[in-house]
Amino acid sequence: MEMIKASWVSIFAFAAILLVIIEPAAEAVTCSPMQLSPCASAITSSSQPSALCCAKLKEQKPCLCGYMRNRSLRRFVSSPNARKVSNRCKLPIPRC
């Protein structure tokens, strides 16, 4: 009976380890500034961001600091309009 309990404990421990390893990989985001294209009009003008823009912005949140460090992208993602879009989407601007 003790051997069976030990086997089940081992199986559950192994399953827990697999979940910890696999779960973050499933949530990995591919950083691509093109994913923010639905936000282009809101960032370059004063128009309201669309629901798709907000969804993409939230999806790309882990990538925003990298975009801010990129000279070519910085002027778009750090602009006053980009900050307004971020606020309207209720997404705090990351501190990088």
Describe this structure in words.
The protein has helices at residues 2-26, 40-44, 51-59, 64-69, 71-77, 80-88. It is mainly α.
What are the main properties of this structure?
Bifunc_inhib/LTP/seed_store, mainly alpha, Bifun_inhib/LTP/seed_sf, transport, lipid-binding, single chain, 96 residues
Question: What is the topology?
Answer:
Blueprint: H1 2-26, H2 40-44, H3 51-59, H4 64-69, H5 71-77, H6 80-88
Number of helices: 6
Q: Residue ranges: pLDDT <50 for 5 or more in a row?
A: 4-26
Give the oligomeric state of the chains in this entry, treating copies of one chain as homo and distinct chains as hetero: single chain
Pattern of helices and strands: HHHHHH
Structural category: mainly alpha
Mean residue pLDDT: 78
Shape: globular
Number of strands: 0
Keywords: Lipid-binding, Signal, Transport
Signal peptide: 1-28
Protein name: Bifunctional inhibitor/plant lipid transfer protein/seed storage helical domain-containing protein
Domain Bifunctional inhibitor/plant lipid transfer protein/seed storage helical: 31-96
Briefly say what this structure is:
The protein has helices at about 1-25, 40-45, 50-60, 65-70, 70-75, 80-90. The protein has about 100 residues and is mainly alpha-helical.
